[in-house]
Amino acid sequence: MFMLSNFLLALAKLIDFVLSAYIWVVIGRAVISWVSADPYNPVVRFLVQVTEPILSRIRRVIPTMGGIDLSPMVLILAIIFLQSFLVPTLKQIAMSLH
Questions:
Q1: CB under 8 Å to 87, separation ≥6 — which residues?
Q2: Which of 15, 35, 32, 38 is nearest to 72 (CA)?
Q3: Burial of 60 per CB tally in 10 Å (0-12, 13-18, 19+)
Q4: Beta-carbon count within 10 A of 29 CB
Q5: What is the pLDDT along the chain (98 residues), one digit of tens a residue?
Q6: Are 87 and 27 in contact (CB under 8 A)?
Q7: For residue 25, which of 55, 51, 58 has the smallest C-alpha distance?
Q8: CA-CA distance, 89 to 98, in Å (whole number)?
Q9: Torsion of CA 55, 57, 58, 64, to 10 degrees
Q10: Is 29:51 a contact under the CB 8 Å cutoff?
């Protein structure tokens, strides 16, 4: 059982890291949308390709209000929720197996 416990702890840490990194990617995408960045720049293309699938789904539910796109903020809040709920839950399950 200790192997499963260690696996779940490692998984929780990995998920936490990936979610934290993705928050910064979303922030970078939001900042790039404020300036007229070159759409052919590899960094800009990466940020758009990584974030657009999720942001477009959020935009379908929450449309732009008065020219302000709230989808990055909604996505960041959803990620924070996952970090606050999913990661501690995995850690508690791992500790209960230990």
A1: 12, 15, 16, 19
A2: 32
A3: exposed
A4: 20
A5: 789 999 999 999 999 999 999 999 999 999 998 898 888 999 999 999 999 999 999 999 998 888 888 999 999 999 999 999 999 999 999 999 87
A6: no
A7: 51
A8: 14
A9: 80
A10: yes
User: Which residue from 44, 17, 41, 19 is spatially nearest to 30, judged by alpha carbons?
Assistant: 44
Please give the full DSSP string across the chain, using - where no structure is assigned: -HHHHHHHHHHHHHHHHHHHHHHHHHHHHHHHHHTT--TTSHHHHHHHHHHHHHHHHHHHHS--BTTB--HHHHHHHHHHHHHHHHHHHHHHHHHHH-
Looking at residue 58, its amino acid is I
The structural domains of the chain, with segments of one domain joined by +, span: 14-84
